[in-house]
Amino acid sequence: MYKIGIGILCVMMVVILGTTLKVSGQEAEDVMLVPMGVIPIDPPEGVEAKKSPVDFPHSRHFITECKECHHKWTGQEIIKNCTTSGCHDLIETPAKPKKYLSYSDAAIKYFKYAYHQMCISCHKEIKMTNKAIEMSYKVVKDTLPAAGPSGCKECHAGEE
Predict the structure, then answer these.
(1) Within a 10 A sphere around the Cβ of 35, how many other Cβ atoms?
(2) pTM of the predicted protein model
């Protein structure tokens, strides 16, 4: 009889704890969910696309700190789109820079320049770092990180 009582008590504890954990484990509405798939990068609403959208594989970039790209994020709020008001929300094309990927503070507000500077600059930096390591003839245990695309047709896959 003693063993049956302990058994019933254990079952009751499992049921109580299981129910408590299930209720307390529910997500709040303001919990940030990280997109895992491919995010299409399109121009903002009202802007006619001149090239095909860029398929951005978000999860491949998890080796990078979030704030590298989401530079205004404090870590507390849900991350907003880059073209949100006050960030890279300029939809009129400013004057082209004299030197490629060298944008003024005003020009970087243009969504296209912001993406190009952030993405292409990072990919080219990785490519240069990989090349320097390869040329050093050092023995590397791990594989070097993929540099990622840096040309128009590589990013805008639907382009001819």
Answers:
(1) 10
(2) 0.71
Domain boundaries, the chain: 38-155
Closest residue by Cα to residue 60 from 82, 34, 80, 33:
34
The token pair at 52 is 């095909």
Contacts of 106 (CB under 8 A, 6+ apart): 94
b/e 43-64 (16+ beta carbons within 10 angstroms → b): beeeeeeeeeebebeeeeeeee
**What is the CATH code of the structural domain delimited by 38-155?**
3.90.10.10
Is the pLDDT at 10 greater than 70? The verdict is no
Query: Which residues, 6+ apart, have CB-to-CB distance to 116 below 8 Å?
Result: 101
Secondary structure letter of residue 106 according to DSSP? T
Per-residue pLDDT at 114 exceeds 60 = yes
Distance CA 107, CA 113 (A): 7
